[in-house]
Amino acid sequence: MLSIIIPAYNEERYIREIISRIQKIKLKKEVVVVDDGSTDSTASIASKIRGIKLIRHVKNSGKGAAIRTGLKNSSGDIILIQDADLEYNPDEIEKVIRPIAEGRASVVYGSRYLDPAQKARNRGFIKKIHKNAYQLFYMGGRGLTLLANLLYSANITDEATCYKAFKANVIKNIPLRCKRFEFCPEITAKVAKRGIKIAEVPITYSPRSFEEGKKIKMRDGLEAVWTLLKYRFVD
User: What's the predicted TM-score (pTM) here?
Assistant: First the structure.
């Protein structure tokens, strides 16, 4: 069975739609929504949707903390992380988990840079003018991938992708300390240090701008760099 963990914070605009699209996927699955102390109607909307498991944080603790809660409350053999917005297409979930389901991998990342058409769309988006310097965010993600490859020989193209899938017994046996957006560099570092190869599959991506509600900030990029450096020497 597949467990899909959805960490959600103030996503009332998207939460109903993302769950609806996930529920239409013809896979044996459980949907674990972790509302991370939202101050809008995210939890209220999710609570009215049948067929999901909803866990609520009393206060906002961060995406990493929400994922850790989701891991404790998931029962599938395969676990996939799904952001609550619509940047990542749930129709591609089956493609992302296929290498695990077929016994060819233990960890799979959906890469936004393997498909030439998607790479062109990425470049087109960053050429637009955004009030909060999305261009820096994009380049930061590319830089984190380079750093992960240099430090851990990860041999990946997209460290910061939010589509990450794991054999449950792999991720649940890795001690995680993340609270905010440092989940991605922490899990990448710890998977690579354990000698587990990260497989990648091409995915599509529809980035939302900061004006549309994107939450990651410059601080999170710096924290990601520190996380990759730190876990090279500690565990």
Answer: 0.91
